[in-house]
Amino acid sequence: MAGSASSAHASTQLTFSTGLFAPAWLPPGGRGNGLTAPSWAPIADIPARHVDPVLAALRQAHVPAHAAPAPRPVRVLTPGQCAPGSVWRLRVGSTSYAKAEDLLMHLLRELGD
In this structure, what DSSP letter does residue 2 have? Predict the structure, then answer.
């Protein structure tokens, strides 16, 4: 069953894909920020350690988002470097793409490497 758990980041609800009744849009092993969208667009590949804070920040900004382990990185956000550890593919609601892109630029600078 899909579960949700409270995060330490701004008391958000994250959705986990853990069984047969997980939302259809959430990839196996993925996490969502609890918001839904009619369509999704991949926006970036991010290091696994940034997944929860990024999902929480996007939720706070009312941007639907989910992430799952990436089979192969397409675009790593740190130019010239590979992301250490596992890389997760972040997808956002298509209609919120520009807002998410703006927020990610600021947030990932704050999170650093």
Answer: -
Per-residue CA distances from 38 to 41, 46, 56, 57, 93 (Å): 11, 23, 20, 20, 7
Decide if 61 contacts 107 (C-beta within 8 A).
no
- H/E stretch holding 57 reads helix 51-60
Q: How many other CB atoms are there within 10 angstroms of residue 52's CB atom?
A: 18
Strand-pair partners of 31: 16, 67
Strand residues in 7-98 grouped as ranges (E): 13-16, 31-32, 40-47, 65-69, 87-93
Interval 15-54: pLDDT, tens: 554 444 445 667 778 899 989 888 999 999 898 899 999 9
Which residues have CB under 8 Å from 109's CB, separation 6+? Answer: none
Structure tokens at 5: 């758990």
